[in-house]
């Protein structure tokens, strides 16, 4: 397949592009810079200039492709709500090109959308349309595109990691360095799901090749890692104290990250593994955090 990939030069995209190419696919990667174009060409892909603000560049990339993987997202969390709304517009623009065909559109969301009961693992067969996370806009836009005749499926991402980056945890490390302590909220037993970036890239490919309309997949290797365990390994890495914060002090310490720091977000991938034959085998989150070079972080 000729696959148009947004976010092709990002953390996940940089693993996804070779995964697709090694499986025999051609990749058209979205990039907004000369450096990004050079990186894509060096990886064996074709570069397509544009960005998430330029909807016409997205439509033209999708129009020349057999399928689309949309894994780009504006990670300026100070404008999180606006960026989630923008993601909905991007999905709408991509879907408008693919409507009425069998060409797959694979979009990205979070496993929290599958949480029906607090404290219970989120599952793929649940879509909580009233979830308080603004990222629900992505799946709502996907549902609208599906109703308009687009072959839409969803990959829900946990904390995606290697020894360099770990999703929201990368930001928690920066806050710990700034504050001089590695903190967690309450007893720290709330859990975040996780998966290694290479396992996630493989799941995107398998989901694309499956081309199952309406499918939801959880890229979850570890159902839930306790946030206290995460804070403790960060504390060891940075050689600083680890502290428990009462909930009322979370906002003062974490800033915008406080909205996530105390959440319990376990997620299952049992259905995904059965449907796609996906068997994650990369290092766990704690192992990657232990192997991280904190002087370079």
Characteristics of this structure?
40% helix; alpha/beta; 297 residues; three-stranded mixed β-sheet; globular
Strand content: 15-25%
What's the total count of β strands? 12
The overall pLDDT, averaged over residues, is 96
Major sheet summary line: 7 strands, parallel
The SS-based structural class is: alpha/beta
Low-confidence stretches: none
- Tell me the Rg in angstroms: 19 Å
Number of helices: 12
The succession of helices and strands, N to C, reads: EHEHEHEHEHEEHEEHEEHEHHHH
Apparent shape:
globular
Ends distance: 37 Å
What is the helix content?
40-55%
Strands across the major sheet, in which order?
Answer: 3-2-1-4-5-6-10
Commentary on this structure:
The protein has 297 residues and is of the alpha/beta class. Helices cover 40% and strands 19% of the residues. The chain contains twelve helices and twelve strands. The chain has helices spanning 13-22, 34-42, 55-63, 80-98, 136-147, 168-179, 197-210, 227-238, 250-254, 258-261, 270-276, 285-291, and strands at residues 2-6, 26-31, 46-49, 67-70, 104-109, 151-156, 159-161, 182-185, 191-196, 216-218, 222-226, 242-245. The strands form three sheets. The protein has a seven-stranded parallel sheet, sandwiched between helices. Strands 7-9-11 form a three-stranded mixed sheet. Strands 8-12 form a two-stranded parallel sheet. α1 crosses α7 (197-210). It is globular, with a radius of gyration of 19 Å. The two termini are 37 Å apart. 46% of the residues are buried. The model has no long low-confidence stretch (mean pLDDT 96).
């Amino acid at each position: 397949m000729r696959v148009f990939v947004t976010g092709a030069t990002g953390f996940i995209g940089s693993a996804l592009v070779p995964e697709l190419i090694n499986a025999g696919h051609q990749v058209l990667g979205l990039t907004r810079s000369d450096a990004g174009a050079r990186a894509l060409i060096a990886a064996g892909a074709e570069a397509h200039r544009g960005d998430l603000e330029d909807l016409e560049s997205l439509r033209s990339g999708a129009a020349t492709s057999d399928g689309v993987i949309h894994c780009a997202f504006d990670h300026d969390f100070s404008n999180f709500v606006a960026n989630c709304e923008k993601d909905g517009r991007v999905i709408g623009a991509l879907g408008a090109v693919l409507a009425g065909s069998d060409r797959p559109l694979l979009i990205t969301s979070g496993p929290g959308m599958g949480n029906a009961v607090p404290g219970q693992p989120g599952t793929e067969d649940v879509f909580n349309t009233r979830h308080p996370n603004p990222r629900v806009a992505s799946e709502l836009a996907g549902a609208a595109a599906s109703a308009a005749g687009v072959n839409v499926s969803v990959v829900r991402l946990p904390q995606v990691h290697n020894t360099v980056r770990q999703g929201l945890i990368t930001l928690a490390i920066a806050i710990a360095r700034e504050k001089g302590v590695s903190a967690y909220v309450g007893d720290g037993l709330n859990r975040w799901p996780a998966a290694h970036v290479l396992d996630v890239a493989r799941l995107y490919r398998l989901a694309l090749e499956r081309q199952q309309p309406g499918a939801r997949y959880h890229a979850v290797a570890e159902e839930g890692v306790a946030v206290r365990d995460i804070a403790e390994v960060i504390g060891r890495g940075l050689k600083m104290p680890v502290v428990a914060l009462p909930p009322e002090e979370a906002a003062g310490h974490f800033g915008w990250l406080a909205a996530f720091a105390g959440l319990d977000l376990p997620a299952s991938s049992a259905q995904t593994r059965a449907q796609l034959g996906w068997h994650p085998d990369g290092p766990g989150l704690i192992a990657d955090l232990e192997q991280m070079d904190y002087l370079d972080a």
